[in-house]
Automatic annotation (TrEMBL):
<feature type="repeat" description="TPR">
    <location>
        <begin position="351"/>
        <end position="384"/>
    </location>
</feature>
<dbReference type="InterPro" id="IPR017560">
    <property type="entry name" value="Cyt_c_biogenesis_CcmI"/>
</dbReference>
<protein>
    <submittedName>
        <fullName>C-type cytochrome biogenesis protein CcmI</fullName>
    </submittedName>
</protein>
<keyword id="KW-0677">Repeat</keyword>
<keyword id="KW-0201">Cytochrome c-type biogenesis</keyword>
<dbReference type="GO" id="GO:0017004">
    <property type="term" value="P:cytochrome complex assembly"/>
</dbReference>
<dbReference type="InterPro" id="IPR019734">
    <property type="entry name" value="TPR_rpt"/>
</dbReference>
<dbReference type="InterPro" id="IPR056413">
    <property type="entry name" value="TPR_CcmH_CycH"/>
</dbReference>
<dbReference type="InterPro" id="IPR011990">
    <property type="entry name" value="TPR-like_helical_dom_sf"/>
</dbReference>
<feature type="domain" description="Cytochrome c-type biogenesis protein H TPR">
    <location>
        <begin position="333"/>
        <end position="460"/>
    </location>
</feature>
<dbReference type="InterPro" id="IPR051263">
    <property type="entry name" value="C-type_cytochrome_biogenesis"/>
</dbReference>
<feature type="region of interest" description="Disordered">
    <location>
        <begin position="298"/>
        <end position="325"/>
    </location>
</feature>
<dbReference type="Pfam" id="PF23914">
    <property type="entry name" value="TPR_CcmH_CycH"/>
</dbReference>
<keyword id="KW-0802">TPR repeat</keyword>
<feature type="repeat" description="TPR">
    <location>
        <begin position="163"/>
        <end position="196"/>
    </location>
</feature>
<feature type="domain" description="Cytochrome c-type biogenesis protein H TPR">
    <location>
        <begin position="152"/>
        <end position="270"/>
    </location>
</feature>
<dbReference type="GO" id="GO:0030313">
    <property type="term" value="C:cell envelope"/>
</dbReference>
Length: 475
């Protein structure tokens, strides 16, 4: 009996809640209160403000921001138009209809509740504790997925050194937008792998960026730097380190790094569209013609074939090298370098191969061979700024001049400046050459242009400013 009394009271309360707006609508003539439309407009204004903040922080790009503005604007216009129609429509004519609906609901609500409850309800069923009830899916994930995640979490508690388990957990948390949990999962994976797997380090750093709402934190930048120590060609690390430059205010530095990454990426690389979009946006912010800096990517691998990996030691060779004597290790490296040189004699148009060979000779201390290899690379790809800069650097090292580049390097640097008028390295070294030859006007012009690209307060900015001050004093 107590149950039915409580049920009747609850039904009466629900009926009153439903009928009150209808009766009030009848009394006020059915006019829609203005605060609702005003509230909606205020929400959309807040969304526009948040959108601008996300754009300023680099969380979204200009194209995404424009699309979002258009959608929010459409919704604001719809609210405004709806408000006009409802304000103009007479409300008195709806009084009879509201009264009829109210009377019908007085009957339908209690009768409908009884019709549903009597065949299915059990008033004598004891209460069920909340902890024993089935939990709702998280982030829209099916119950089976949540059960699998719970099993994986329990497995990792029992087997905390399961590297593949932590990687799977990190990927799963990322897909569920649980970025903080993803960071912790990848942190465990990094610990188990002892920080020696570049792919795991990159995933860890990327998770930190996602957890930081698109901003590159200092720890993520350091992690990506460690990745490049192991794999200088890691596209993910190169992309995000360029992004960190841009977020720190060095837009020109970010642009140069994205341009270099695009030039060294295959045409079918999945990251290339994103890199090109960044180049376009950053060049626009700097007032640079995009066509003058947008590089051509490397040819894509033939359909059905995987891109050939860059020549280098395999994992087994690297493991074996750890047990070699220094002489044996040097012999292995020499063998690989000689093999690359032989291959390039049969394929002299492989600019990237010449670039790798030149760098290898430089590491071995054979500067003359490095110059020859990089000269071949510059010949194979005359417009490749990265190859030309490596060639100029080799010429400067071989020349042994620290204060200014030798004439051969100056000629190459002028080629670079003709392709990239704002290239910071070319501006710096050509300024040194101009200052050495007492061409103070040219040196001042070159370094002044370089100064605009550097962040005030940085060591580089201070050095260039000091050089300009010395020119002004006649030193």
């Amino acid at each position: 009996m107590l149950f039915w009394i409580v049920a009747a009271a609850m039904t009466a309360a629900v009926t009153a809640l439903v009928l009150t707006p209808l009766l009030r609508n009848r009394q006020t003539g059915g006019a829609l209160p203005g605060p609702r439309a005003a509230y909606d407009m205020e929400v959309y204004r807040d969304q526009l403000a948040e959108l601008e903040r996300d754009l300023a922080r680099g969380v979204i790009d200009n194209r995404q921001a424009q699309a979002a503005r258009t959608e929010i604007g459409r919704r604001m216009l719809a609210v405004a138009e709806e408000g006009k129609r409802e304000t103009a429509s007479p409300g008195a004519s709806s009084g009879k209809a509201s009264r009829a609906v109210a009377l019908a609901l007085c009957v339908v609500i209690p009768v409908g509740a009884l019709a549903v409850y009597i065949p299915t309800g059990e008033p004598n069923l004891p209460g069920q504790p909340f902890a024993s009830r089935e939990t709702k899916p998280e982030n829209g994930a099916p119950a089976q997925v949540m059960q699998a995640i719970a099993k994986l979490e329990q497995h990792l508690k029992d087997e905390p050194n399961d590297l593949q388990g932590w990687l799977l957990m990190g990927q799963t948390y990322t897909r569920m937008s649980r970025f903080d949990d993803s960071v912790e999962a990848y942190r465990h994976a990094v610990g188990i792998s002892q920080g020696k797997e570049p792919g795991i380090l990159s995933s860890y750093a990327e998770a930190m960026i996602a957890a930081n709402q698109g901003m590159v934190p200092e720890e993520a930048a350091r992690t990506f730097e460690a990745v490049l120590q192991s794999d200088p060609n890691d596209a993910r690390a190169r992309y995000y380190l360029a992004l960190a430059r841009g977020q720190a205010g060095d837009m020109r530095g970010a642009l140069d790094r994205w341009v270099e990454l695009a030039a060294q990426s295959p045409a079918d690389a999945p990251w290339l569209p994103t890199v090109r979009q960044r180049i376009t946006e950053t060049a626009g912010q700097l007032g640079i013609d995009v066509a003058s800096v947008m590089p051509q990517p490397l040819p894509a691998a033939p359909q059905g074939e995987a891109a050939a990996p860059a020549p280098g030691p395999t994992r087994e060779q690297m493991a074996g090298a750890a047990d070699m004597t220094p002489e044996q290790r040097e012999g292995m490296i020499r063998s690989m370098v000689d093999g690359l040189a032989t291959r390039l004699r049969d394929n002299p148009n492989d600019a990237d191969g010449w670039l790798r060979l030149g760098r290898a000779y430089k590491v071995l201390g054979e500067q003359d061979k490095a110059v020859e290899a990089l000269a071949s690379g510059a010949k194979a790809a005359p417009g490749r700024v990265d190859v030309l800069m490596a060639y100029a650097d080799a010429l400067m090292v071989a020349g042994g001049e620290e204060d200014a580049p030798p004439p051969s390097a100056v000629a190459v640097l002028r080629e670079v400046l003709a392709i990239q008028p704002d290239n910071p390295q070319a501006l710096w070294f050509l300024g040194l050459d101009a200052a050495r030859t007492a061409n103070k006007g040219e040196a001042s012009q070159l370094w002044g242009k370089l100064l605009t690209q550097l962040q005030p307060g940085s060591p580089e900015h201070a050095e260039v400013q000091s050089r300009l001050d010395g020119l002004a004093r006649g030193g």
